[in-house]
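Example S7 (structure tokens).
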């Protein structure tokens, strides 16, 4: 009798555990239909991942859709296989549309799009993908990129007009991330344009060191602190969670920071302005195309969003600049939009070759 009761108790416990799993994690048919696969770094990085995720959340909550995020295994050391497994998990959990953030997703995303042709994928900071080098374009992938050079231009112009003349740029991706490269090149161009107006000389330290994984690190903080101690007044922190290392160094040295991707002024009182792109807004827009049966308008295409789409800029609601006004910024914005002021997107491989009359760039390797 005791043996029978013991067996029954085990069965009851097993059934209870099974029921608990089913409640906590719905089966694919009832699962999460909007999915987000993160870039390297943390989900709530107060920057790229977070801005993209908030777009997924915003659409899902407004339209009563289920949603979930997936982080590839192994963190900053994630492989293409890890990224594909995260996408596979999303599809297995019922995803109808998967938002993938970051240029490093390309290889895994190509595999996922071919494996799951009925699922739609949004490739943020991406481009159209093909089935093989010369194969057809994958129509279930929409590539969305941004004209970050324009946002960087506004930030560089703003800080020089504010009076800063010793600037820094710390970028993520090791110099291989096109978005960060465009941000940095735009920042230098903006500084040059403003310095010409003021007839000033500006110095910029420029580095990809310690930013390959877009993560905070003691090494990055030490480098930023060294810059500040040697006269740098403000650093453009361009790379996700790198932001926390730069702001820590700025706080310790009573210096300033330029944020990236989203308005980061609420995260640290060291932030003067931020070079932004409309991550959440564009994600909402792209997901909407799927649910409105208008996927053909973006599927298989590469979309580049900039000032013409009001998709890049610097924040005005949290404006703290004292020597340059919102109205002056709006005038410059319209000049860039009209083409009266040109911002070059074709960044050089070596920024030390930048030939400015008012800006000198020192590349730190």
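Recovered sequence:
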């Amino acid at each position: 009798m005791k043996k029978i009761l013991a067996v029954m108790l085990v069965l009851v416990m097993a059934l209870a555990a099974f029921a608990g799993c089913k409640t906590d994690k719905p089966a694919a048919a009832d699962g999460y239909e909007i999915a987000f696969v993160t870039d390297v770094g943390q989900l709530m990085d107060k920057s790229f991942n977070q801005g993209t995720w908030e777009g997924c959340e915003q659409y899902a909550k407004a339209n009563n859709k289920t949603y979930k995020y997936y982080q590839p295994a192994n963190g900053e050391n994630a492989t293409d296989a890890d990224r594909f497994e995260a996408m596979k998990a999303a599809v297995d959990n019922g995803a109808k549309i998967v938002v993938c953030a970051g240029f490093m997703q390309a290889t895994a995303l190509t595999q996922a799009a071919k494996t799951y042709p009925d699922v739609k994928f949004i490739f943020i900071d991406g481009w159209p993908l093909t089935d093989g080098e010369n194969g057809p374009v994958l129509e279930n992938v929409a590539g969305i990129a941004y004209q970050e050079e324009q946002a960087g231009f506004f930030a560089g112009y703003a800080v020089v007009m504010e009076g800063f003349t010793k600037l820094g740029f710390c970028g993520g991706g090791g110099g291989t991330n096109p978005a960060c490269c465009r941000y940095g090149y735009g920042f230098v161009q903006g500084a040059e344009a403003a310095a010409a107006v003021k007839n000033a000389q500006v110095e910029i330290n420029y580095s990809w060191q310690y930013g390959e994984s877009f993560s905070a690190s003691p090494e990055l903080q030490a480098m930023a602190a060294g810059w500040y101690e040697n006269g740098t007044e403000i650093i453009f922190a361009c790379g996700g969670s790198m932001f926390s290392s730069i702001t820590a160094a700025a706080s310790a040295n009573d210096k300033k920071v330029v944020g990236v991707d989203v308005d980061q002024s609420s995260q640290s009182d060291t932030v003067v302005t931020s070079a932004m792109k409309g991550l959440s807004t564009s994600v909402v827009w792209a997901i909407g195309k799927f649910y409105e049966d208008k996927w053909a308008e973006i599927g298989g295409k590469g979309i580049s969003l900039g000032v013409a789409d009001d998709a890049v800029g610097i924040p005005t609601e949290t404006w703290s600049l004292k020597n340059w006004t919102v109205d002056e910024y709006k005038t410059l914005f319209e000049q860039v939009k009209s083409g009266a002021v040109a911002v070059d997107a074709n960044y050089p491989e070596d920024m030390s070759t930048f030939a400015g009359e008012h800006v000198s760039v020192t590349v730190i390797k």
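Notes on this example. DSSP finds ten helices and 13 strands in the chain.
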